[in-house]
Give the backbone structure.
Amino acid sequence: MNLKKYEAVFILDIRKVDDEGEAFSKELAELIKSLGGEMLESVSMGRKQFAREIKKRKAGVYWNYIFNLDAEQTDQLRTKFMLDERVLRQLVIIYDRPEQ
């Protein structure tokens, strides 16, 4: 397995998550673990207002994740949450921030 470091941002629908996304976060961590990866960091960035509505919503809960995962498994991750009604938007990119 060739693990790469990824960063992901998820915007969750306020009406579909009742705990600010804590349960969603645990679920994502378990999915990554089951795909052979590891969650390094998960940070809630709180509720934010949108500049434009997304799916008739004016605000969402933002979460930032950093994790290691096999490159081939990231497609599975994206596909699963593309169909999830709690997720308004998602972005998964290769983590390339310089180390301090």
Remarks:
- The helical segments are 22-34, 73-82.
- The beta strands are 3-13, 38-54, 57-70, 87-94.
- The CA atoms of residues 13 and 86 lie 5 Å apart.
- The radius of gyration is 14 Å.
